[in-house]
């Protein structure tokens, strides 16, 4: 059973990926400093899988502490790197914090990958690297455009660093560009734990529906789209998670002919903000309290994925519909409300 090191394992996509890896026969260890997550999510993983996950509470910006993990685990067969700051708005206010955290942690990790000859490295990238695309759907060959935020630049630079690293080292790398991950694991034992007021659409919808937010703002309905609101490619977090397992298997089976290969992880369906709200109202039978507000600076007008490469090369197929995304997100929000101790979502309460 090969051991995979997952950084950011207590985070939203990291925790769902650990579940999928375990269900597919992998052994997993996690590295997460819990600065923006709670180790309690590991209890949820244990409830789902029956496996206790060891988490190293380490800041990857500390090279010595990071190195010590590899020295203690000589059998790491691959790494999936999620740990990074990802709040677009915060990155605009604090660019240096984003460049320091997201880049220093990646470089420290890659130094250890080289030192310990780790054969496979999978990187959590984002459709944000495409900026405002001229043509949609976007393929992996769509040229990146200037990012819309420092966060987006950390993903673009991360991809370039890994690309160059893979040319100078035997490690084979995969870059996974997520579109908009939403929803919760079907068990409703793990899900998204936004810190503070959510910037992302689906947690904003569910927190409004549950009454945590009095009224939600739709950021603009005057865009050149079919209903005036922005279009995105929403994808269930468990579908995203499974693509990571398939990526590791693909690398381990020696099928990759490239040193660094890119895959779009999107459903391939463009959905507008108003359509997403409509779908939520349909599955939840809750009338959502929202108003139309001004456009949000930096918002991409419309983007969705051409996911042919992941489907044909990784054998990846999405299992969950938009209705499933909304219903699992809603059930998760209801659980958080019903059991306030289940997980707390503010940094002060996280530990
Ligand atoms: C989606 C749409 C908003 C909240 C995200 C992540 C980013 C990256 C890409 C991973 C936009 C609108 C939102 C609200 C709204 N993911 N909206 N009212 O902007 O596509 O970016 O995916 O790397 O990290 O932020 O997603 O969910 O923030 O917004 O109208 O209260 O919903 O304007 O059009 P986005 P989002």
> How large a portion of the residues is in β-strands, by DSSP E?
15-25%
Mean pLDDT across all amino acids: 95
CATH topology: Rossmann fold
The first-to-last residue Cα distance is: 31 Å
Q: Give the uncertain stretches in residue-range form.
A: 345-351
Tell me about the largest β-sheet.
7 strands, parallel
Which molecules are bound in this entry? Answer: UDP-4-deoxy-4-formamido-beta-L-arabinopyranose
Main CATH class:
Alpha Beta
Q: What's the shape?
A: globular
Count of folded domains? 1
Number of strands: 13
CATH superfamily: NAD(P)-binding Rossmann-like Domain
Radius of gyration: 19 Å
What structural category characterises the helix and strand content? alpha/beta
H-E order:
EHEHEHEHHEHEEHEEEHEEHEHHH
Q: Give the fraction of residues assigned to helices.
A: 40-55%
Note the total helix count. 12
Protein name: UDP-glucose 4-epimerase
Domain NAD(P)-binding: 5-327
Pfam families: GDP_Man_Dehyd
Pathway: Carbohydrate metabolism; galactose metabolism
Structure explained in plain terms:
Its EC number is 5.1.3.2. Keywords: Carbohydrate metabolism, Isomerase, NAD. InterPro entries: NAD(P)-bd_dom, NAD(P)-bd_dom_sf, UDP_G4E. One of its GO terms (cellular component) is cytosol. This protein has 351 residues and is an alpha/beta fold. The protein has one domain (3-350): Rossmann fold, CATH 3.40.50.720. Helices cover 41% and strands 16% of the residues. It has twelve helices and 13 strands. It has a seven-stranded parallel beta sheet with strand order 3-2-1-4-5-6-11, with helices on both faces. Strands 7-10 form a two-stranded parallel sheet. A two-stranded parallel ribbon has the order 8-13. Strand 5, helix 6 (150-168) and strand 6 (172-178) form a beta-alpha-beta unit. Helix 7 (201-210) crosses helix 11 (322-338). The longest helix has 21 residues, at 95-115. It binds UDP-4-deoxy-4-formamido-beta-L-arabinopyranose. UDP-4-deoxy-4-formamido-beta-L-arabinopyranose is lined by residues 86, 88, 126-128, 178, 180, 199-201, 204, 216-219, 230, 232, 273, 296, 299. Residues 86, 88, 126-128, 178, 180, 199-201, 204, 216-219, 230, 232, 273, 296, 299 line the site of UDP-4-deoxy-4-formamido-beta-L-arabinopyranose.
């Amino acid at each position: 059973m090969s051991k995979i090191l997952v950084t950011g394992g207590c985070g939203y996509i990291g925790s769902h990926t650990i579940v999928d890896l375990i269900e597919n026969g992998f052994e997993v260890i996690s590295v997460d400093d819990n600065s923006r997550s709670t180790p309690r999510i590991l209890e949820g993983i244990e409830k789902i899988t029956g496996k206790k996950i060891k988490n190293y509470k380490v800041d990857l910006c500390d090279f010595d502490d990071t190195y010590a993990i590899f020295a203690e685990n000589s059998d790491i067969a691959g790494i999936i790197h999620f740990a990074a700051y990802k709040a677009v708005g915060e990155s605009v206010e604090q660019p240096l914090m984003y460049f320091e955290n997201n880049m220093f942690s990646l470089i420290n990790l890659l130094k250890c990958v080289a030192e310990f000859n780790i054969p496979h490295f999978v990187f959590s990238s984002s459709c944000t690297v495409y900026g405002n695309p001229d043509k949609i759907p976007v393929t992996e060959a769509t040229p990146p455009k200037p990012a819309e935020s420092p966060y987006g630049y950390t993903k673009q630079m991360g991809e370039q660093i890994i690309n160059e690293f893979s040319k100078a080292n035997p490690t084979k790398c995969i870059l996974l560009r997520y579109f908009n991950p939403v929803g919760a694991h079907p068990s409703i034992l793990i899900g998204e734990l936004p810190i503070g007021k959510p910037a992302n659409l689906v947690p904003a919808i569910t927190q409004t529906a549950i009454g945590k937010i009095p009224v939600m703002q739709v950021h603009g309905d005057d865009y050149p789209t079919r209903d005036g609101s922005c279009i995105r490619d929403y994808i269930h977090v468990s579908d995203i998670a499974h693509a990571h397992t398939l990526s590791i298997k693909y690398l381990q089976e020696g099928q990759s002919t490239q040193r660094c290969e890119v895959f779009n992880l999107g459903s391939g369906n463009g959905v507008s903000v108003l359509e997403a709200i409509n779908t939520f109202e349909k599955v939840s039978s809750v009338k959502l309290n929202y108003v139309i507000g001004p456009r949000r600076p930096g918002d991409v007008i419309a983007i969705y994925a051409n996911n042919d490469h992941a489907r044909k090369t990784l054998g990846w197929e999405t299992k969950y519909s938009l209705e499933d995304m909304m219903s699992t997100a809603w059930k998760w929000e209801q659980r958080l409300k019903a059991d306030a101790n289940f997980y707390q979502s503010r940094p002060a309460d996280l530990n």
